[in-house]
Amino acid sequence: RMFPHHQLFNQILYSTLKLDIALLDLINFFIQCSGCRGTLETKYKHFLFFQDSGDYPLTMPGPQWKKFRSNFCEFIGVLIRQCQYSIIYDEYMMDTVISLLTGLSDSQVRAFRHTSTLAAMKLMTALVNVALNLSIHQDNTQRQYEAERNKMIGKRANERLELLLQKRKELQENQDEIENMMNSIFKGIFVHRYRDAIAEIRAVCIEEIGVWMKMYSDAFLNDSYLKYVGWTLHDRQGEVRLKCLKALQSLYTNRELFPKLELFTNRFKVREKRGNVLLSDFFSGSEEALSNEDCENVYHLVYSAHRPVAVAAGEFLHKKLFSRHDPQAEEALAKRRGRNSPNGNLIRMLVLFFLESELHEHAAYLVDSLWESSQELLKDWECMTELLLEEPVQGEEAMSDRQESALIELMVCTIRQAAEAHPPVGRGTGKRVLTAKERKTQIDDRNKLTEHFIIALPMLLSKYSADAEKVANLLQIPQYFDLEIYSTGRMEKHLDALLKQIKFVVEKHVESDVLEACSKTYSILCSEEYTIQNRVDIAHSQLIDEFVDRFNHSVEDLLQEGEEADDDDIYNVLSTLKRLTSFHNAHDLTKWDLFSNCYRLLRTGIEHGAMPEQIVVQALQCSHYSILWQLVKITEGSPSKEDLLVLRKTVKSFLAVCQQCLSNVNTPVKEQAFMLLCDLLMIFSHQLMTGGREGLQPLVFNPDSGLQSELLSFVMDHVFIDQDDENQSMEGDEEDEANKIEALHKRRNLLAAFSKLIIYDIVDMHAAADIFKHYMKIRLIFLTNMLFNELVQEQGPNLDRTSAHVSGIKELARRFALTFGLDQIKTREAVATLHKDGIEFAFKYQNQKGQEYPPPNLAFLEVLMILCCLKFLTEQMMERREDVWLPLISYRNSLVTGGEDDRMSVNSGSSSSKASSVRNKKGRPPLHKKRVEGMYDETLEGSWLNRNDTIQTPGALQTPQLTSTVLRENTRQMGEQIQEHESEHGSEQDFLHKRGLMEDDAEPIFEDVMMSSRGQLEDMNEEFEDTMVIDLPPSRNRRERAELRPDFFDSAADLKESFVSLFLTVLIQMFFFWMGREF
Fold it and tell me: Which range among 46-60, 339-353, 971-985 shows the weakest confidence by mean pLDDT?
């Protein structure tokens, strides 16, 4: 419920007779803001009842709760501001509030802990503001006192001096009081909650300490406080790290603070260059603090996949390398050299930077990173073209071939960025809607680049026509043109020049990248919506006619000569076939009937076995394109029955050829035939008749069992190959790693093609059974069951759990467990189902020796333990029990241990008799536990379950009653505290005294709910130094991290409780079913 400030202020600005009542209202205010429905009628006489829901005001969604949070924070600031002159110094209200918030911040209940931490941090911020005002008043009073004292004796006012001295004394006393309050909050709350188990609480602490350092830099901007921000830069949650970066950003934007940040920058910049980058303001503000090596580490972040980081790094790179320091002088120098643009040197520098970053060859990412800060440079296409086409002038070095290739690649990326106006793939969540201004800029840029490259592109193609890499990049430019300019600008002659150069490139190159780029360019220029379509179509048809005629003659010559064909005949067929195949991909060439000659080549190769593998691969691909284009014609028109029969005959004959090619000795031929078979079976499956196309039923093909077996055998032989064999086959290759990655990618594509046939029910499911046992993420329990059954059949029921076969199954289960991820809430139902299936499998069969012997599959419970990420049985427990029952005992204890730990962690918070009695009185009675234990005593006596007296199946976990931390009595002994301090190593105290403040240290260890100092409340009254040096409490060591207690508002804490209940239900039913009884 939203609260206006003045209603509560009327109660807080209390009279002398109502101190307790007003303070009680303030206490109830903080408690009710935590979501508690109860109230305190008398101070510290009633414990709290917390509502059942896991939500509380600070976490509830909706605009009203966001407003509640802002009002709550604002109220605390206004409260201190209204009371800053008298009430906060009365040693009553502030001491009580700080003690209350400190106690609540130590609560196991997240709502109390979160709300009180937020209130305490805002309270601290308000006190920092008061301390700053007091400091200003002290300085002013001191100056007035010095000025009055320096006057001549006759003019000096002694009464005024006494008043100023008295005022200075009062201000100093108030300053000491404020510092004591701030130290109490900092030591009692901040130093424990900044490493809380909950990310939101850690974020609140880091956000506020940034405010303190910026607001009162003289007191807080030092290494004693900066180290908390530095440690938290390694937080697991991005939300907390972001708060750290924002806090540092606000500091680095102020150059006056640089001297105080120097030690921190030198200490933590080594870490930052390995992780995320600070925002642009940090980069631009900390140039002087970063060495050249540090800057280079920042430069490489322009290739980051996270666009905000890359853009910030791009802005930093622009300011360091690509900004013009004296534009007028540079323009004058460019004109003297005969250049139209002064950006020539900057573009050369950009090319050098791109080439030097050898690990990052993604030009599109570099352009996108610099786009917002260096658009003027990146859109200077005239300068780029000038550097490529013209000879270097006096004073300029000629660009190398490698530099020219890099410049062309960067230029094409800038054209794409300007024409499409969105980041490259992998640099955004999708295309966003452009604003009117952005859309106008996009249109203007597209017109500008079109007008320029319509003229320049033919010249560039002419100069670099012999270089396949450069030509392939340059041929991407026309797809970004506004093709209407060819007609509206009367530039048809430049279109003819472009078509002439493209034809020359096609005749000169056989590389697939170049041919595909030419084919795509023709496809774009042939678009029917533009008036230039007829002109381009004529040029394209003439080109295809020439190559088809050349292909037909070369095929005849090759088939006539047979085995006597020389290399020239083979090259003529292969080169023309490559060109036609590349064009057939994007163009309908069925009227030239390429399928007939391709089929002849394939049949000849099958019958005589003398056809080169490259010709077979290209012939298969070209025939495939021909069939697809025929299918497109049929589906778009009204085909006759004869058309369907002709296509069916064509497809049938081609499928037979592909099936025969699966036994070819050449691996590329087999792989190509396999991929085409899978694609055609997918296309011509029963899916073809969907959408009202029942008339295409004659074209549906269903693979017979023989073809399915051949496809499966191919997958088993070429996909699931031994890694050692593959590594041996690649030994001695200079590009070993690249070849391994390429081979892995190829195998994945082969497996994906076959898997699609299984998914769409084209291949029978049982044909894929052999694949499932090789694949690690399909049907977890099915796979482990299958492997376990095979092992039982080989070794019998008495398995050797130390054997390599059992260890292999356990390792497989461990890898399966990693697929569930860290979010236990999302996987809760799946893991519970996994338990159920696993238990049913373990007790599925009865031991043939009798009921007193364990089931043969009982050992599977050990695998199930690993599969569900549960704890193992300790070695001591294993030594006390018979080996045959160890799987059951281990599985049972893996479930029970978590529940006992949860109960112990709840009850460990309070050991006083009063608190215990309250819990027992108010807690939920463990009826379920009594019922289950009683049932065991009556029905399972003498059964094999009770062979060991130590085995007891627990009931449901008792839900603890949550009580206020105000009632908890601190029973920790001073001796235990000293012993713990002596036993802990790697604490923050050791860090400060032994290694120095800013030496190498490990990342901070996050505390859980109850990780706090021993005797916080007693620390409130300690005397602190004026310098506010903090005496940090010891940190938990790494071994204690595994003992973090659960949070009662984290529903994942109930996960194992559900497992216990599920285990009891299923296990008891299986026992009675197995024993022939009815539950």
Answer: 971-985
pTM as predicted: 0.63
* For helices 804-818 and 780-795, angle between their N-to-C axes, nearest 10 degrees: 170
| Beta carbons of 95 and 1020 less than 8 angstroms apart | yes
Retrieve residue 557's tokens: 């010559």
Nearest C-alpha neighbor of 1046 from the set 992, 1001, 1009: 1009
8 A C-beta contact, residue 1012 and residue 1048: no
Poorest-pLDDT segment among 586-590, 688-692, 861-865: 861-865
The DSSP 8-state label assigned to residue 422 in this structure reads S
Q: How far apart are CA 360 and CA 299, in angstroms?
A: 11
Question: Which position has the token pair 């909650």?
Answer: 193
C-beta separation of 525 from 536 below 8 A: yes
Long-range contacts of 691-694 (CB under 8 A, 24+ apart): 693/635
Packed helices 667-683 and 736-759: angle between N→C axes, nearest 10 degrees: 30
Per-residue tokens: 1010: 């109850």
d(C-alpha 655, C-alpha 653), whole Å: 6
Are the C-beta atoms of 788 and 860 separated by less than 8 Å?
Answer: yes
Which residue reads 């005397």 in tokens? 1023
Say whether 532 sits in a helix, a strand or coil. coil
3-state secondary structure (DSSP) of residue 205? helix
Supply 442's token pair. 């996009």
Higher pLDDT, 613 or 833: 613
Query: In this structure, which amino acid lies at residue 358?
Result: E
CA distance 187 to 1019: 8
Cβ–Cβ under 8 Å, residues 227 and 988: no
Question: How many residues belong to the chain?
Answer: 1079
Phi/psi of residue 429, each to 5°? Answer: -85, -5
Could you give the residue ranges of the DSSP H alpha helices within 323-435?
327-336, 344-356, 363-370, 375-378, 381-389, 401-420
pLDDT band at 291 (very low <50, low <70, confident <90, very high): confident
Q: Which two tokens stand for residue 562?
A: 């047979």
Give all strands (DSSP E) within 975-1026, no chain letters.
none
CB 475 within 8 A of CB 522: no
Is residue 139 classed exposed, middle or buried when 0-12, 13-18 and 19+ CB atoms within 10 A define those classes?
Answer: exposed
Mean pLDDT of 152-178: 85
Q: How far apart are CA 603 and CA 597, in angstroms?
A: 10
Which residue, among 1045, 1039, 1044, 1042, has the nearest Cα to 985 in the 3D structure? 1039
Q: Contact at 8 Å (CB) between 80 and 88?
A: yes
Quote the CA–CA distance of 556 and 561 in Å, as a whole number: 9
Maximum mean pLDDT: which of 386-395, 567-576, 1004-1013: 567-576
Question: Which range, 251-260, 1007-1016, 1062-1071, has the best average confidence (pLDDT)?
Answer: 251-260
Tokens read off for 743: 């081979």
Q: Cα angle vertex 1018, ends 1013, 1019, to 5°? A: 65
Mean pLDDT of 487-491: 90
Mean pLDDT score across all residues of the chain: 75
Crossing angle of helices 641-661 and 594-608, rounded to 10°: 30
Helical ranges in 233-305 per DSSP H: 238-252, 258-272, 280-285, 292-299
Q: What letter represents residue 966's amino acid?
A: V
Could you give the CA distance from residue 305 to residue 301 in angstroms, rounded to a whole number? 9
Q: 739-765 as b/e, with b when 16 or more CB fall inside 10 Å?
A: eeeeeeeebeebbebbbbbeeeebbee
Q: What is the pLDDT of residue 37?
A: 74
User: Tell me, what's the pLDDT at 274?
Assistant: 38
CB atoms within 10 A of CB 293: 8
Cα(667)–Cα(617) distance, rounded to whole angstroms? 10
CB 753 within 8 A of CB 674: yes
Q: Which two tokens stand for residue 619?
A: 């012939």
Q: Are 987 and 1005 in contact (CB under 8 A)?
A: no
